[in-house]
Amino acid sequence: xxxxxxxxxxxxxxxxxxxxxxxxxxxxxxxxxxxxxxxxxxxxxxxxxxxxxxxxxxxxxxxxxxxxxxxxxxxxxxxxxxxxxxxxxxxxxxxxxxxxxxxxxxxxxxxxxxxxxxxxxxxxxxxxxxxxxxxxxx
Length: 138
Hints:
Blueprint: E1 24-31, E2 34-45, E3 48-56, H1 65-79, E4 84-89, H2 94-102, E5 106-108, E6 119-124, H3 133-136
């Protein structure tokens, strides 16, 4: 299983190939047929997934979409074999940091050298916890 992890791009930023199976996924949510948000998950090693590219379109914010996206990403990470999720975010994204805390993420020490990251989080993924991806998108 160790061969499933994809090394980070030399820049430390996520590249498109990292968000495709078998080592990652990019989930896109639609509202009335139009893209309304996305979230990415990628394996860093056989048990650690990284949450990345969490985005909800400005016109769709404040309606509960972000927690559903993160929950779907957690389920996707479990499907890839991950038992923990990590993420980083900028300091000015106060709402995002509050969301991660509400969803059970705890702030941790720095785990990468991303120049835009100012806060790092982690969550242990309990098998079977949370909604399934199909339940989230209904």
